[in-house]
Design brief:
The protein is of the alpha/beta class and about 475 residues long. The protein has a seven-stranded mixed sheet, sandwiched between helices. A three-stranded antiparallel sheet has the order 12-14-13, with helices on one face. A two-stranded antiparallel ribbon has the order 1-2. The longest helix has about 35 residues. The two termini are about 25 Å apart. Bound molecules: pyridoxal-5'-phosphate. The site of pyridoxal-5'-phosphate (PLP) has 14 residues, from helix 4.
């Protein structure tokens, strides 16, 4: 009997703490003699794990602790906004009245439609947009929808053939480049200025009558506000292009500034980052898209509107069609609605205050070099002579999740850090202590990390090129 306790591990069956698969635990041969099936359909014998319910519960709890999540500790994964989401939104999403079959008639689902309409309205007001579609299931899908809307707009003006380019800053998220390319555009990469913001002269050179759109996020991925945004918008509009807002960083602006007022024509909202759905593993999320009135006729179908006190679906006149089944990821939308309603105007303003305050406080405590600043919701430090990936692995040993590393590439050994609005000063101090402990460590210590986690340093190349995807029994 083992009396030594180790956190669950999986890579080596001989290691302390190895947690076998359920099917490997206490296998018992069960007799099939009394099974009421015709003989031809019966197995001779059946081997199953013989476990009690507490053993089963403990197995899964142990497995759940092998990973690091927002409920394990601070998770400052820059750009991703990995924040703790309050549980009341789960309760709201689990209400039986929310589980309406999507094919039911509008007249028998007025409450559902009212919520969707209300969320369209909340988001339009928060973003300063004229209309919103709730359909896209992620930020990236929202971007692609936005690109399709831009195409429809240019087509209607007879300019699609001429407008072949989408301009994107080099600090932008990879999905921006992918969405533009998938939409059939040539990407023009815009080098950032020395201060990490859009270089207006470089933008001038990049824009032309071929420009379909400029995709920007503001504050950008360095956490820096684009102060020249009105001039930038004017420049894009002067050449007949559209200005697209990547809403991934909206938590920095909530209740204080609106992309629509800055001159943006299209935006997506990552409701799973800004509002209340866990973001990770690819979703399921929601990436609603807002547009100014000129683009409203092209929105995906169906939209929800209110007529004489009744809510109904309708198809915008020149709709690009559907980008997701029904109205999108309904339960994620319910959570976003509940979260915004609970926060109210004051709560939204408080959210952006804390997102910005937390990032700046943490930046002031971290000993790594941090170019630029002051920041909005995130900052990018440089690990200098250390390898940012090693820093990340070592931070796990101190019980915190690492920041996003090595992006943007123009910051050497980048550590993109976003503490989010939900962390307390205690958690921020814990994070700063972890950063600073690692900053003082030698190469050898970093290269061997992590040493205290369930999975140690894995061979990433083999994991990618030669993955073991099927279960093999221990005795095979
Ligand atoms: C700046 C930025 N834009 C777009 C996205 C894409 O969003 P999603 O992950 O919802 O597809 C992300 C994702 O983290 C992001 O950080």
């Amino acid at each position: 009997m083992t009396l030594h306790y180790d956190q669950a591990r999986w890579e080596d069956p001989d290691s302390e703490g190895y947690e076998p698969l359920l099917s490997e635990k206490n296998r018992e041969t069960v007799s099939t003699e009394d099974v009421p099936l015709p003989d031809g359909l019966k197995r001779d014998s059946l081997s199953l794990p013989g476990l009690t319910e507490p053993e089963l519960a403990r197995h899964y709890t142990r497995l759940s602790q092998m990973n690091y999540g927002v409920e394990s500790g601070p998770y400052p994964l820059g750009s991703c906004t990995m924040k703790y989401n309050p549980k009341f939104t789960e309760d709201v999403a689990a209400l039986p009245s929310g589980l309406v079959h999507p094919d039911r008639s509008a007249s028998s689902t007025q409450g559902t439609l009212e919520l969707l309409y209300g969320l369209q309205d909340y988001l339009a007001r928060i973003g300063g947009m004229d209309a919103v579609t709730l359909q896209p299931p992620s930020g990236a899908a929202g971007e692609f929808t936005g690109i399709l809307l831009a195409t429809a707009y240019h087509e209607a003006k007879g300019e699609r053939d001429q407008r072949t380019e989408v301009v994107i800053p080099d600090s932008a998220h990879g999905t921006n480049f992918a969405s533009a390319a998938l939409g059939g555009y040539d990407v023009v990469e815009l080098p950032s200025g020395d201060d990490g913001r859009v270089d207006v002269d470089a933008l001038e050179a990049a824009l032309s009558e071929q420009t379909a759109a400029l995709m920007l996020t503001n504050p950008n991925t360095l956490g820096l506000f684009e102060r020249e945004i009105e001039e930038i918008a004017g420049m894009v509009h002067d050449v007949g292009g559209l200005l697209y807002y990547d809403g991934a960083n909206l938590n920095a602006l909530l209740g204080r500034a609106r992309p629509g007022d800055m001159g943006f024509d299209i935006m997506h909202y990552n409701v799973h980052k800004t509002f209340a759905t866990p973001h990770g593993g690819g979703g399921p999320g929601a990436g609603p898209v807002g547009v100014v009135s000129d683009l409203e006729p092209y929105l995906p179908t169906p939209q929800v509107r209110e007529r004489g006190g009744e809510y109904e679906f309708f198809e915008p006149e020149d709709s690009i069609g559907k980008v997701h089944g029904y109205t999108g990821n309904w339960l994620v939308l319910v959570k976003a609605y509940a979260y915004i309603a609970r926060l109210g105007d004051e709560g939204l303003v408080d959210t952006s205050a804390k997102a910005v305050l937390n990032a700046n406080y943490l930046a002031s405590q971290v000993e790594y070099e941090i170019p630029n600043g002051p920041f909005h919701h995130e900052f990018v430090a440089s690990a200098g002579e250390q390898d940012a990936a090693d820093v990340a692995k070592r931070m796990l040993d101190y019980g915190v999740h690492p920041p996003t590393t090595k992006w943007p590439e123009f910051v050497p050994e980048a550590l993109m850090t976003e503490p989010t609005e939900v962390e307390s000063k205690r958690s921020l101090d814990q994070l700063a202590a972890a950063f600073n402990a690692v900053a003082g460590e030698d190469e050898e210590t970093l290269a061997s990390a992590p040493n205290r986690t369930s999975a140690r340093r894995i061979d990433q190349t083999s994991a990618a090129r030669d993955p073991r995807l099927s279960w093999q029994a221990l005795d095979e």
